[in-house]
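Curious: can you check?
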Amino acid sequence: MNRYPLWKNLLIAFVLLLGAIYAAPNLFGEIPAVQITPARAGAPFDPYALAARLEPKLGEAGLAHQGFLYDPGALRIRFADTETQIQAKDLIESELNPDPAKPEVIVALNLLPGTPEWLARLGAKPMYLGLDLRGGVHFLLEVDMEGAVTKRLDAIAADLRSLMRSERVRHQGISRSGKLIEARFADEPSAEAARRIITRNMPDLVVDILPQGEAVRLVARLTPAAEQTIREYALKQNITTLHNRINELGVAEPVIQQQGAERIVVQLPGVQDVAKAKDILGRTATLEVRLVDDTPGALEEALAGRIPPGTELLYERNGRPILVKKDVVLTGERLTDAQPGFDGQTGEPAVHLTLDSAGSRIFRDVTRENVGKRMAILLIERGQAEVVTAPVIRTEISGGRVQISGAMTVEEARDIALLLRAGSLAAPMRIVEERTVGPSLGKENIERGVTATLWGFVIIAVFIISYYQLIGFYSVVALAANLMLLVALLSLLQATLTLPGIAAMALTLGMAIDANVLINERIREELRAGVSPQMAIATGYERAFATILDSNVTTLIAGLALLVFGSGPVRGFAVVHCLGILSSMFSAILVSRMLVNFTYGGKKRIAHLSIG
């Protein structure tokens, strides 16, 4: 009657063992580390060679480390304390970036989990801690929406020049003036032809023709709907770009979300280097296509310090100098997609670019007019331009498909494609609020939260054991199992724990013990009615189940509503609350019943049931 089959006992024990394994990483804390990543996406980066170079330098400086962690795009060095970490960061920075204006790598302070290797191999990881528990930085960024609209209008003006040239409509100049694009024509028929072409190709523009003396002025402006779309796109594009940039800091669970119509909230838990975080947030990265100046003797003149007007001396990835023209043929704004792949002829890693309709037209015209000349594809990041490749134009390229290849690995091709997809910021941003939460404050919050939860557990345990005796002790064991399973679930899901989450844990303890109280009181009622102890145990668990299920389902519905409609700390509370309800159902009913069965299930007659 009060015995579980062997498979059920083994299953419960297995679940508890898994819970113990996946909750354990949270006991080991975090280890200070220095993280090194390439300053430019796609730049050559060998973490093993870098470690071999840095290890003797750290030894000479007396900075003991606790090991290197190697990733394809990052090297992390662990240290025993933050003081050694900061000293090592300064040493590494001076060693790897002798010219601070042109950094070769990004050196950032970081915190890594102290999980033992054997646990890490099982996939066990600690919970992520929120900004209020771990410390870090909080930024409130404001997007310059007018700048986004202006940038788009400048691009439209350039498109109109190309469009008028391809349609063979003569004009006397196209320029942007405020939020208007003005085009001047010698006569009204030319202006009317231009208006028809613009209306057909650019439905987002409203066009008016205004006489201006003997000439005719055509004025175009964006429709309100198009302007609103540009603003919304700028915000979404900036959020996407920020996500990709913050990955370089190795931040676990960064919070990047929209606030209002023009602002973005960025929270970076665990980031100690605020200056480095601000540098990453403000980065620009885009693509430019320019023609190469291969005039005989021009490159030699440039290397001698006499750069010809209208040109710029740059360097290819292999360090070879190249002279490119300053006029930009095409920018990354015309990209609709960038994917890593391979060159169909040589099999080398490559990046395949897809251009929009305007970009396809511009690229077709430029390649048709410059067959036999070289075209440089530049990646511009942190204000520095690097020539990725400079192929010779063999024939006209149409269809909007462009390939970048040459001297890159598969990993570099993937990184360049990622960076180009993210693009540059769609609009400038400024930091309107900056707040730093120190690790000491985060540690204090953890200690207070843990203390509150621990004291809540102790008080509940004392009361339940004194009131329900041995059965009460089993209820407390089930409560401890519930807490362990909840932590294991949060760790497995890699959820972010915040102060409201700790509050939800404390609330879960009270709600979880409520189920055991219902069971224990039901058993006592059966005993008072004269039912045998064995029957009282079975009836108590069976009849209390419906009440426990009803109460937990209604509470779960409220938690799901908070999860769906809440945001920020409210959602953090809701996640822990909902998981706590699920784990409490398992522990209160199955774990406590298994312990009671072990004690009383094998006895035919029970003289006394220790339940108070």
Summary: The two ends are 22 Å apart (CA to CA).
